[in-house]
Records
---
Amino acid sequence: MWQLYQFTLCPFTRKVRTLLGEKDVGYELVKEMPWDRRDEFVDMNPTGQTPVMVDPERSTLLIDSMAICEYFEETIDKAAMINGTATNRAEIRRLVAWFDTQFYRDVTGPLLDERMVKRIVHRTTPNSARLREAMKSSIAHLDYIDFLLDHRKWMAGATISLADLAAAAQISVADYLGGIDWTGHTHAKAWYGAFKSRRSFRPLLAERMSGIEPPSYYENPDF
Amino acid sequence: MWQLYQFTLCPFTRKVRTLLGEKDVGYELVKEMPWDRRDEFVDMNPTGQTPVMVDPERSTLLIDSMAICEYFEETIDKAAMINGTATNRAEIRRLVAWFDTQFYRDVTGPLLDERMVKRIVHRTTPNSARLREAMKSSIAHLDYIDFLLDHRKWMAGATISLADLAAAAQISVADYLGGIDWTGHTHAKAWYGAFKSRRSFRPLLAERMSGIEPPSYYENPDF
């Protein structure tokens, strides 16, 4: 059985877990707080970041959320999520990188620092200027998602793909931390409402990070 | 013919160009200075980053250096660089992410900011504390490369892979900017000396960024 090292609000782990859910791959969760920089974990993964997957029976170690997704995409036929022509696949990977890097840098990362790490690790108050900046970026990112979904059914085209999983992973963490203002973002809201009902995603929305409550509408597909 | 938007010292473009060289894919260079944030370029790629590849005849647009590499890996059989079993391929992708993200964040990125952007764009002096920090990180990264190459012929295993191309791309830019102290890094130095002789890589080492000279040994495979 695969072991998946993660913490509840890790957006990169959420992308991987949704993919594993779509593909019906079983795993057990191992709690890892990357900010503890636990020696055994850093020895396993020198970046010190979650997620990491280990299959002890076959001595397999998978590191880096995109490398993990590509691995399961190559080894499990069910629910192909990097699909279509080579050009379609390039567009899916571009958007995964967009959400993993730009959305995380502008929105999810600052929210996690200010509203999670500062609360549960440092027990200090968040930097309100940085939070305001993240909220402003969040609106710009939702505008871009609205633009994409204005001429596409899913993020990267006509079918669901890893780009949608990556987007929902980042958005769900930002939403949990009160960083998403859904007002006016019609396409993004409709897309995310539908995504919330997926069997692969619902279990993640039911989980709570101890000491931090999400907004009341957080789990509701009809919000 | 593919058009490749780039600037001489872009490490992500160097990874792509070395792959295209290995695969004998032709392209023409288009100079793009990402720090200018040229409107037409940002319209094409919202991250504003190089490299971007365009095939005007087939209206194909490829964005994000890893998505570009995966595209050519899927469409050109020659010189497979994400090769081996699914586990090998995961290790290659982990290391590409390591060099693209960690090495860039710790070493190449700060060196480009301090020794290139400040010189040719802002015309200010570099921050010496930040440069010292980058040099310290550079040594730690070379130690890690020595560790990898102590039990492997190439970065990710027995054969050359995209991990080597990603590493050489970052290292060559850091080396151009005087950020690599080769003293004592026996394995890394032997590996890079051999890599410098590759037909796909030599042309990159011959290029110069106007106004910035590399160290005298920079192009020499026997340094």
Note: Helices of chain A lie at 11-22, 39-44, 65-75, 86-122, 128-150, 162-176, 186-196, 202-205.
---
Amino acid sequence: MRRRKHVKVITVADKAQPLQLDCGGVLPEIQVAYETYGHLSQTGDNVILVVHALTGDSHPAAHDQADDIGWWEPLVGPGCPIDTNVFYVVCSNVLGGCQGTTGPASINPETGQPYGAHFPQITIRDMVHVQKRLLDKLGIEQLVLVIGGSMGGMQALEWAVTYPDMMDGVAVIAAPGYTTPQAIAYNIVGRRAVMLDPDWQEGNYYGTAGPAEGLAIARALGMITYQSDYSMTEKFGRNLRNDKFEVENYLEYQGNSLVKRFDANAYLYLLKALDLHDLGRGYSSYQAALARVKAKVLVVGVSSDILYPPYQQQQLVRELKAAGARASYNEIDSGHGHDGFLIDFPILRPMIDRFIRSILPTPALLNHHSLFRPSDLAYLGARLVTEI
Amino acid sequence: MRRRKHVKVITVADKAQPLQLDCGGVLPEIQVAYETYGHLSQTGDNVILVVHALTGDSHPAAHDQADDIGWWEPLVGPGCPIDTNVFYVVCSNVLGGCQGTTGPASINPETGQPYGAHFPQITIRDMVHVQKRLLDKLGIEQLVLVIGGSMGGMQALEWAVTYPDMMDGVAVIAAPGYTTPQAIAYNIVGRRAVMLDPDWQEGNYYGTAGPAEGLAIARALGMITYQSDYSMTEKFGRNLRNDKFEVENYLEYQGNSLVKRFDANAYLYLLKALDLHDLGRGYSSYQAALARVKAKVLVVGVSSDILYPPYQQQQLVRELKAAGARASYNEIDSGHGHDGFLIDFPILRPMIDRFIRSILPTPALLNHHSLFRPSDLAYLGARLVTEI
């Protein structure tokens, strides 16, 4: 794939420095696949860490015109809110994933075989620890912003709690401070479907077809929760094609598409990481965890999100404020459901743009920022006016 | 089971009178399991048909103190809104079910083997046609009311459209005029889970264990859609038991419970019947179907229903009114989700009570109603006063 061209891989854990995991396991070797955009400033003060959602990867945007488009193209690039003419953007595939970073499909150095179901359970916090090691390797000590949607939003929140001194801002889109039982329940059903597939073979399916139908079913269920009754009715109604409801054709297509690009065991582990997400984990209380946050936090909800409904984001902001953090809530008023964070760019762009400018140094400081070109300043200035 | 004691079985289709099905198939033999409560009046003017939901049966209430309780106990019985001292209540297991009425587990008279996946596809309308044949056999020509929730509500609506002259009222709880793609999508996922189970064996599992895990997964998904984020959070939170989230224990319990009492093929066929539900099916338009309705219609939604959200019931009432029908909307303001129709009896009882009284003959007629006892009249009178 063309998109692989810009992917770099780096080792962040080895026998000398294994990673102790949140649930008690150990990973003796971790490789991280990542991409970077733009240029690191001399003082290292222009870094934005973009973190991806469940089935995402290290490729939020194309690197050039010949490159495949990314999953957050309208947000990341020259002249975008996450302006790669200004910022040095880092995005890595998550721990437990299957797009280059160590996960269940990786070879277990102790057995020489893929981990499969013997991969240790990982959490959102483990993903963040791995990203921290990646930044250490890259010589990055400070972040302007950590930003992500859905599972990416959970990581952004964990960043704010785990490394509170490292970033100015955190932007969390369509993600809760902890996962509620309804969202867990959907994941349980998805996992059971994968594991019911006889081709799953207790996770030892590498070299064989693998649990294609089980994973496709899990994905189909995911797709329902990412959309809304409204958006599905708009798109599919009760229309038929090939003697099937359009929605059935769609779900089959989406399921099969994921099967081609995603490892079923990785899907199982990442779903479980979503279930385990709870910022309060390991702290004396949830409130105590939130009280650690020093970054300015923007929390964005999507009005029609049925997976992590907006009341959860509103609640998170109230809880952050109660814990003394600077937090604000923006809502994407959209029928797209949870997927709004990957669709509603005309609404998301100004929200993110405004937030980034609110955490940047003052305009005076902007002027001496070596990476701001005059055109960028004019661009930012013009939009700042509209903010008044 | 004790509850079987009061179940009667009657043949409503045979070689001489097979049932032509809505989707083109034919059933050469149909038996219906049903129960009755109360006494049929001499003029046959006191019949209420109660229709059940997906996994329900012919047993909405206990017949006596020794009997098992039913699924609508607080609504059906002496002194209840569906007062068995007053009304003759009929409830039958649906066509395609597995509680005594012909379904996929029944013996195909042409092969001597269970139908399995060779059972013809059935619709909600077919269920209604079978119920009509049952009433014919029982000598019932007129209904005071047809009432049901969820799939039962769909049947009640089909009754109003298919046999518009037969009833005074129809009460529809938590059911739409047609199924929307999100609800269809959940059913698709459920069916695929059942069929993925190797023990499903293309539906030929009779005499073997059957697709227990597949059906349990489908049921688990159903249970999510019957509840709400709120009710699940209230019940389970993120509590753990036996190293599992409580919600996982709960879903496993619910799945396993259904497996013990329900046939997987019946589940597949009934889910598909839900998908095919569309009152406009076979008519020149949806509006044309609604214009056939002569009964007074009460439509009840549950505020937190995510399966058939209340806007669908509100829309149905608007559409019924636009088609010239007498329709009204009541909402159960509850966090219980779709299951509210089986839980929120303190709200549902007065709604149903009021509606039944609104469709009954005038008080003058009530007096000569042979089955009204003085105490019932006093009871009704007292409550009528509260209506003013």
Note: The longest helix of chain A spans residues 181-196.
